[in-house]
Every structure is written in C-alpha cells, then in structure tokens.
Design brief:
Blueprint lengths: L13 H20 L47 E5 L6 H7 L4 H10 L14 E6 L6 E9 L2 E9 L2 E8 L3 E10 L4 H8 L3 H11 L14 E11 L2 E14 L4 E6 L5 E2 L21 E3 L19 E4 L5 E3 L4 E9 L3 E7 L4 E11 L6 E2 L4 E5 L9 E8 L2 E3 L17 H23 L2
Antiparallel strand pairs: 1-2, 2-3, 3-4, 4-5, 6-7, 7-8, 8-9, 9-10, 11-12, 12-19, 13-18, 14-15, 14-17, 15-16, 16-18, 16-19, 19-20
Helix pairs in contact: 4-5
Bound molecules: zinc ion (ZN).
The site of zinc ion has 5 residues, from loops.
Length: 439
C-alpha cells in the first residue's frame, strides 16, 4: 500500500470508484442540463450538430442539506461533496477558501501535482469536486474535471499528503472534412470554414517553411482539411486532431499528412516538422535523475513519477528552447519552482523547471536554440539542476531517448504504408468534396 501513483483504474477501492462514477454521471447530467458542450468550434461540424453555446455559468456549490436524499432521488450529491466550476479569473487559493478548505491542504495537493502541474492551468469550464470524509469533515479527495476524456483525482494518502490518479480515456474519433476558400488571410478563412483558432494557427505553422501565406495565397484559392474529433459516449470532448491538409493555390499545391510516427509529411514524404535539438543547454551535464514513471521521490521517499530528466548544473547555466514554439506558461510553483512551458505545435510540448532567471514572457514566439532562462534551484529541489520534460500528444516521454522530429523524410521501408495512408485521406477529401457540392 505504499504506492503513491497508480495507473488507472485504481484497484484500491471499488466503493470509491463507484462513488466517483456516480459523481461523474451527475456532473455529466448537470453539464447537459446546463447546455454545456465542450467545444468551441465556431461552426457546427458537418457530422455532428452542436448548437449549444459555450459554457458560461457562475460557480455552483451543490450542497443541498434541506432535502433528505430518500425524499429526493434526483439529488445524488450529498452534503460532504461540493463542486466548483472554474470561471475566468478564478484562482485555486480563492476556490479553496470558498469551500472552506485550508491553504495548507491546498499546498499538500500542489505537492502531489508537482509532476503533473495540472492545477496550474485551470480553464473556464473545468470543475473541481471536493469530497470530505463524512465524519471527520477532512478533505479525502479532489477531482479536477478537464473534459470528458481527461480527469485527475487527488486522493488523501495520510495526514500530510495526497497522491493523484490521471484518467485519460482514448474515446472514439470521427473524421470530418472541412473545406474553405481563401477570403482575406488563410488564418481567418480557416476559422470561417470551421477550424478553431488553435487549429488554424497549427496549420499555418506546419506550412511555414514551405509557403508564404501573404505572398503565395490569394482570394479564391481553396483548402481541404481532414480533422478528427474525439467523442466519449457519442459526445464531443472538444479534443481534435488534424490528419491531412491540402491547399490549392492558382498554380501550386501544398499538402500535409499525419503519419503513424506523429509527424506531418508532404505528399512526397518530406517531413514538415521543424527539427528539435536533444538538450536545452550547451556543453555536457550529468543526468542526476533519469526519466522514471515509478521512481521514489528523493524527499518524500514515496513512489512518484519523474516525468522529466534532471541535469545537474550550476545555477546560472543558460537554458535554450529545444524547438520553435510559443511560451505558454511562465510560472512559479511552490514545488516545481520557476518554470517555463513551450508549446511547439499541436503535439509537442516542453517544460523547464527549477529555473533561476526567466528571460521570456508568456505568449512570446520562440525559435529553437533561443535563450529562455538560466538554470537554478527553485522550488522543492535537492540541489542546482534543470528538470527538462518533453511531452508528445499530452504524454511525458523520455527526452533523452524519444524519437524527436529531425526534419527528415519517410524511411524507404515505410513509404508504401505512407502512400496507402495519404491515398485514403485523399479519397475521403475528394468524396466528401463531391458531397459538399452536391454532385
Ligand atoms: Zn526532476
């Protein structure tokens, strides 16, 4: 029973799981009744109709002590459970105050969240559900509901600490064709056609080295995008993946197809991914703690996943971005210390923890090899080092061994599989295209 982190499902407590399932069901019902649909696509997808507006609800506090449960079978949330829906401007500390849970308990949860950092970006529409022990009124569990396919549950382990369980459901994915004509910029035309801002930005980023959007594209040119949308129980989760893009300009044709290795290639099999560099520093530094999903935490002595690699280096060592991207977080966490997160495109993300001095701002565009910080020893740290993480499609991977994009082409022995894949996507584009124009 020493295990602090377990992959889902948690075998520890059937009762807790069924309670959580019940809670999840209630949360879903509340969301549906509230007209909530986890999507911000500006135009209803072709295959699935989503007419509900984006969720805008005041924080709710579902505590109903007036109606005994037996008299009200609809009320499934007893008084030791309370729920908060995040609205813009909320912060964790104020939410804990509002449910009358002390800041020291919050710090215990933040300690559990150190390797995940999920609580550092609460988004409007996320919910936090607090479950107290019915007798002692002590917090025993807190659930962060991000979307129907992604939740994190923090469980009390003992008097002073929590662990966490991350629930990631694969769901089903449904393909959809989006067709658009250029009218103004590509970015705005793509949004008008039904892509999200992030998707339009990712596509522009994808073609950046091949195509000058202001010079090579003009009004009347058109584009096709195959996008797949994630569904859980036939409902959209808001998660999507671009699988193929074709842009037809007056005399040229540009394409990008997602292959099984997670990278995009043009129809000739040339990679569109911009290269990464392996390490975020120059010179050589010793690995003081390797990537290890089941390591013992050096300070608490418990099993806690180590989702990055620690490189021992003196405070003040220059740290560089390992790939082109945008700074999405500049934070100071009580345990992770001063840290930076960079989103490189839809699939790659890097984090740099325990920094000393940060020289970039959130929202800033960054180039591979550009200096972003100097290393430090901030947060909960056993000595000066850099903790570096690489995430691919939402999962932390070993940055020392991961297959990172090196801007090459499809391997010869994979080329047949690749051609098969692009011909399937093109068939889908052409067929759906015919349906769209009604032939
Ligand atoms: Zn580390």
């Amino acid at each position: 029973m020493n295990t602090i982190w377990k992959p889902t499902p948690n075998p520890q407590s059937k009762q807790r799981r069924s309670r959580r399932f019940l809670l999840l069901a209630v949360v879903l019902v509340v969301m549906i009744l509230g007209g909530y649909f986890l999507t911000d696509f500006s135009q209803p997808p072709e295959l699935i109709v989503t007419e509900q507006p984006p969720f805008k609800e005041e924080p709710v506090h579902i505590i109903d002590t007036n109606t005994p449960l037996k008299d009200n079978p609809q009320n499934l949330i007893p008084d030791h459970i309370s729920k908060r829906t995040i609205t813009s401007g909320d912060n964790l500390s104020a939410i804990f105050d509002s449910v009358e849970i002390s800041q020291s308990i919050m710090v215990q949860i933040l300690a559990a969240d150190e390797s995940l950092l999920a609580l550092d970006i609460l988004r409007p529409g996320n919910t936090l559900t607090f479950t107290l022990d019915e007798e002692t009124r002590q917090l025993v569990e807190m659930e962060l509901f991000i979307h129907p396919a992604h939740q994190v549950v923090y469980h009390r382990v003992d008097e002073n600490s929590f662990d966490y369980e991350e629930i990631i459901l694969p769901g089903e994915w449904e393909q959809q064709l989006i067709y658009g004509e250029i009218d103004g910029s590509f970015y705005l035309s793509a949004i008008k056609a039904g892509l999200s801002e992030q998707e339009a930005g990712n596509i522009a980023y994808l073609f950046k080295s091949k195509l000058n959007f202001s010079r090579d594209i003009r009004a009347g040119d058109h584009f096709q995008v195959i996008r797949s949308l994630q569904l859980i129980d036939r409902k959209l989760t808001g998660q999507s993946q671009i699988e193929g893009v074709r842009i037809f300009s007056r005399n040229r044709y540009y394409s990008a197809f997602l292959f099984e290795d997670g990278n995009f290639y043009d129809d000739q099999g040339e990679s569109l991914a911009r290269a990464f560099q392996r390490y975020p520093y120059k010179g050589r530094y010793r690995v003081s703690s390797a990537f290890n999903p089941t390591r013992l935490h050096p300070i608490t002595g418990r099993i806690a996943p180590h989702k990055g690699v620690d490189f021992a280096m003196p405070v003040g060592t220059p740290i560089y971005a390992t790939g082109d991207g945008e700074i999405t977080r500049v934070k100071n966490h009580p345990f992770a210390g001063k840290y930076i997160e960079i989103q490189h495109d839809g699939r790659y993300l890097t984090r740099y923890l325990h920094l000393n001095k940060i020289t970039v701002k959130r929202g800033q565009k960054i180039k591979r090899g550009e200096r972003i910080a100097s290393s430090g020893n901030t947060g909960r740290s056993t000595g000066p080092h850099l903790h570096y993480e690489l995430h691919i499609k939402g999962r932390a991977v070993n940055p020392v061994t991961a297959n990172i994009p090196m801007a090459t082409s499809i391997a010869k022995n994979k080329f047949k599989t690749f051609q098969q894949r692009i011909s399937e996507l093109i068939v889908l584009m052409e067929q759906s295209q015919e349906d769209l124009v009604g032939t």
